[in-house]
Specification:
Number of strands: 35
Mean pLDDT: 81
Low-confidence stretches: 27-33, 304-313, 355-365
Structural class: alpha+beta
Oligomer: single chain
Distance between the termini: 115 Å
Helix content: 10-25%
């Protein structure tokens, strides 16, 4: 009887378990997985391939755009502080991780991992609805998408995507609802971002890029020193700017983390990934030099003044103070992937930022934008008086206020009260426009924007299209463009009068012989005669060593041309005809070529299609 009782209990328990399982299976669909019909499998596979492709695209956008897919609002710079909130690189506008605003405030916009995960999630939710099922529709499928909800996790070497989205698929008598779509995309996004963040943190704590930039300034420009001469020393500020820009381009571009430890250009970074740094002289750069005399730096000699002849020699002491701000683009690469971000490098008073002891850039200037209280309506039109939408900003002293984007050519905003401020408008496809505007009372300033037209450049020499080395300069009062032939032969240009210059070069081994030149200056006589103000010629022979001309001028010319808007509308190519010159074999012939350069006139025409000249 005891054994029968035990068997009965086990039977009852078994029955209860079976009944519970049946109830759960019947009442809750979540405990069972319906197999997907074989005919519908290709739709699921195609959708997963699409989501994977969208995820890879999102990762690529993040890596190339500094961790952003949807960029933060664009904040323009000013003529005094040229840095906007983004660096223009080709067709990209990459948000700066660190920059100075138009009002000299230091700004940071470094994305977090969580932010990037949210960016990818929103991108996938938006783009997954664009997956194309047209081919399946043609085969008799009916596909309907529900609302997508995506969750993304970024790891060092992969991105995990969990997409919840009902995908209803029917074909004939078979149907299925595909709910959860989970996939993993192999990518180094996470580890590349961490490496980039470590480099950024290192720069913000040690200012190593500023230190390299200070070295460039001291190497490529006069900073402080003494020269034994009786003549004033004069430097051109524009040439100094060019020298520093070229020096930064070469030296910043030489920095890396893979060289020898004792190499000056090797940066000791806590990452094994290849890291490069870039600066272009075409990027916005701010430089201020003190003291200056107009556009010149002048250092006057000591020792040739009346009453100082007793010194017996002259010397020129000089000391110039540089304030420099320029961008640097950082690129971290691994396995064919690259993460890049820009930041601004600051030099104040010949020193890196760490040298500004006890100073706060943010505390120097009161931001007048905080006191905007004057109602103003800005109207923006093109040359045909059609409304144009653009970004509007207003600059007063050293503050720049971003007022927002116009809608249908109009923007109503509050302006800070300012006399002779600068109202600026930037619109895609148009030349930036600015006017002097006083906002002491309500007003309605109107700006007319000139449309820009993209034109290819063709250079014709001797009836044939020229494909060698050369440079074309196109400039007006407010525009200056230099085109290096073979790199980017096109330009965005608006109506107006332009100066055009063409220089054509060819590799040369022309040697200029060594020479001796005599330079004479008037200096005070020594002794009593010097005290009396009498002077004499002091002549010095300067030895000029032999020089090798590696690029010789072989053609070119200059001229002016007025482009009308009607011409630009109806053309896509600027055809420039220039004269060829003989390849120089002597210094005299080289000098003659430069003389011809100033007298040769260019032929300039506009065309719609590429014309064959040979």
């Amino acid at each position: 009887m005891g054994k029968k009782g035990q068997v009965t209990i086990f039977v009852i328990i078994a029955i209860l378990v079976v009944v519970a399982g049946i109830l759960i299976y019947t009442l809750d669909d979540s405990f069972r997985e319906e197999p997907i019909p074989t005919s519908i499998e290709p739709v699921k596979t195609a959708f997963m391939d699409c989501v994977e492709a969208k995820t890879s695209l999102a990762v690529s956008l993040l890596e190339s755009n500094g961790g952003y897919i949807e960029s933060p609002e664009f904040v323009p710079g000013t003529r005094y502080q040229p840095f906007s909130s983004k660096l223009k690189l080709g067709g990209l506008r990459i948000p700066y991780w660190f920059y100075t605003s138009g009002s000299s405030l230091e700004k940071t916009q470094v994305p977090t991992v969580e932010f990037m995960e949210d960016q990818i999630s929103r991108f996938i939710e938006r783009e997954s609805l664009e997956c194309d099922f047209d081919l399946f529709e043609e085969e008799g499928f009916h596909v309907k998408s529900g609302k997508p909800i995506a969750e993304v996790k970024i790891d060092d070497d992969f991105v995990q995507v969990d997409l919840n989205m009902d995908l209803s698929v029917e074909k004939g008598m078979e149907s299925a609802i595909l709910k959860d779509h989970n996939l993993r995309v192999n990518t180094n996004l996470g580890s590349l971002y961490e490496a980039a963040k470590e480099i950024y943190d290192r720069e913000q704590s040690e200012y190593f890029l500023e230190k390299y930039s200070v070295d460039v300034v001291r190497l490529y420009a006069p900073v402080d020193g003494v020269e034994l001469t009786c003549s004033p020393m004069v430097w051109n500020a524009d040439q100094i700017y060019e020298n520093i820009s070229e020096g930064l381009e070469v030296n910043i571009g030489s920095l890396n983390n893979k060289g020898r430890r004792d190499d000056y250009y090797t940066v000791d970074l806590d990452t094994d990934y290849s890291t490069r740094f870039y600066y272009s002289k075409d990027w916005p750069t701010y430089m201020e030099i003190n003291p200056t005399d107009g556009n010149m730096l002048v250092a006057k000699p000591v020792g040739n003044q009346q009453g100082m002849g007793v010194l017996g020699f002259c010397y020129v002491p000089y000391h110039f103070v540089y304030n420099l701000r320029h961008p640097v683009l950082v690129q971290v690469t691994e396995g064919g992937e690259m993460f890049q971000f820009p930041m601004v490098v600051l030099i104040e008073g010949n020193l890196a930022r760490e040298g500004k002891a006890g100073q706060s850039t943010a505390g120097k200037t009161e931001d007048v934008c905080e006191f905007a209280n004057t109602k103003t309506k800005v109207s923006i039109y093109d040359g045909d008086l059609k409304p144009v939408d653009g970004v509007v900003s207003f600059s007063c002293v050293d503050s720049s206020c971003n007022l927002g984007n116009s809608a249908n050519g109009e923007l109503e905003a509050l302006f800070p009260q300012c006399v002779n401020g600068v109202l600026e408008v930037s619109a895609e496809g148009y030349k930036d426009e600015e006017i002097i505007y006083s906002s002491m009372q309500e007003g309605n300033p109107i700006l007319i924007l000139e449309k820009e037209y993209n034109q290819d450049i063709s250079l014709i020499i001797g009836g044939k299209e020229y494909t060698g080395e050369g440079m074309i300069s196109i400039s007006s009062e407010d525009v200056s463009e230099t085109i290096i032939l073979g790199e980017e032969n096109n330009i965005d240009i608006s109506q107006g009068e332009y100066d055009i210059q063409v220089h054509l070069y060819k590799s040369s081994e022309l040697k200029l012989p060594a020479s001796t030149q005599e330079h004479c200056v008037r200096v005070p006589r020594t002794g009593i005669l010097g005290l009396a103000g009498l002077t004499k010629n002091d002549c010095t022979e300067v030895e000029v060593p032999e020089q090798l001309v590696t690029n010789a001028l072989i053609g070119g010319g200059s001229g002016k041309y007025i482009f009308s808007e009607d011409e630009l509308k109806n053309s896509n190519r600027i055809v420039i005809t220039a004269d060829a010159m003989n390849e120089p074999t002597s210094l005299e012939e080289l000098q003659n070529n430069y003389i011809l350069m100033d007298t040769n006139e260019l032929g300039v025409t506009l065309a719609w299609d590429k014309i064959k000249y040979y």
